[in-house]
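#dry-run=false #mode=assembly
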Amino acid sequence: MIVTNIETVPGMQIVKHLGLVSGNTVRSKHAGRDFMAGLKNIFGGELKGYTELLTESREEATKRMVEQARAIGANAVVNVRYSTSSVAAGAAELFAYGTAVVVE
Amino acid sequence: MYDLLIFLILLLLGYVFGQRAEKRHFRSIIEREKALRDILVFSERRIPDEDQLEGTLVSGNVVISVDFFKRFVAGLRNLVGGRVSSYESLLERARREAILRMKEAARRKGATAVWNLRLETASIHKGAQNGIGAVEVVAYGTAVRQRR
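#status=ok
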C-alpha cells in the first residue's frame, strides 16, 4: 500500500479511482501524563508523553484508512490529509482521509 | 501571602528553566537543520520528472509547552494588545522541530526530497483555565527517492 499526499503516485499511473477513504480515532490522555504535563507547564519544553500519544493516534488513524482502502481493492491512497480537532477538554480526534486508487 | 510567594517562585523557576530550555532547543534545532540540509523540502504539489522516483508519506510532530513566566507575560500582553513574542518563539520552535522530525523520517526512508509539505497546528489543553498552554505542530509530506 502506497500512501502519498500529492495527487499522483510518483512513477506510476492511476488506472482507477475508488473514492474517499478515511480513518479516525479519539484519544484522551491519562492522569500520569497529565501530571507530567502540569510540571512542564511551569518549566516549559516538550511534552514527550503527548507527542508520543499523538504520533500513535495518527498512525492508528492512518492504519484504519489504509485498511478501508484495502477492503475496497485499492493498492494506494493519494491526496492524504490529516486533521485534528478537540472534542472535549482532554480528548482529541485525529482524522486521516484520502482518495483510494489503483495504480500500475 | 504564601500564595504570592509560591507564585513568585513559580515565576522565577519558569524564567530560569524556560530560558535555558529554549536556548538549548534552538541550538539543537540549528545543529540538526545543518545536518539535514541536503533533504530539500517543497510545498509544491507537482513533482517534475517523477518517472524514476517512488514516494511515500512521512510526518513529524511535536507538542511543546510554554513556561510559567512566558504565560504570565502573555497574559499581561493580553491587556494592552500587540505582539505576543513569547508565543511567537514557541510556535517557531514547534514548527522547525516538526519539520526536522519529518526530515529525519525521510532520511530513514532514504529519501532525497519531500514534496507538498503541509503544516498543521493544534492547541492542546483547550478548555483548561490557563489558556493555550501547549501547541502541537504536525508536518507531513511526500518523501521521494530514486526507484531501485
